[in-house]
Structure formats: C-alpha cells, structure tokens
Amino acid sequence: MSVVQQVLIDRLINYLDDVIHRGKVKLNGQYVNYDIFKTVKEGNVLRKYIYLETETGYVEEAQLLTSTNEVLAIKPFSIEKEDNGLVLAFEFKITIQEQEE
Description:
The protein is mainly beta and 101 residues long. The chain has one helix at residues 6-19; strands at residues 22-27, 30-34, 38-42, 45-52, 57-65, 71-81, 86-93. A 4-stranded antiparallel sheet has the order 2-1-5-6, with no helix packed on it. A 3-stranded antiparallel sheet has the order 3-4-7, covered by helices on one side. The two termini are 15 Å apart.
C-alpha cells in the first residue's frame, strides 16, 4: 500500500494552481504582463497557458508569478512571433517518492 494518497497530490496541484497568479513574457527585450489564458489539471499534472494574440516580435522567455510578483518558474523560448496567436505552455508533474526505512 502506498503511504501517499492521491488526495495529497490533488491538494499540492490545487495549491500550485492557486499560487500562480499571472504570466510575464519577454517580448522584443521588454517584459509584458499577461493573464493566465487557460489552466488544465489532469491527475498529477498541472498545465498553465499564456496566450499572445496580436503582438509581434521575438519571444525570449516566459515566467509565472505569484500575486506579489515572486517568480515561480522561468521558461526560455526562442520564437519569432508573427501576427497570428501564440500559446506558451508550462507543465508541472507532481510526483512524490516515498523513502523506504
């Protein structure tokens, strides 16, 4: 029997979801704030998406931030964005490894 129950992983996923407040993207050398476009929770995985609609230029990185602007995650990109939309995705998989005694 597993010591860690799925309810613990579910709560960790929900906590992470609650902590992530918004995104920030470095576009053409300048940081621009974005709302989270979409959130998907599937089992042990949390995905957060940022959507750039009409902006154009070079995307260097994206960040996920708390409501107090603490940077939780940074993901590098090297994308030349055209007029069409662009979705940037972050994926987190929660796994807990139990230690044998």
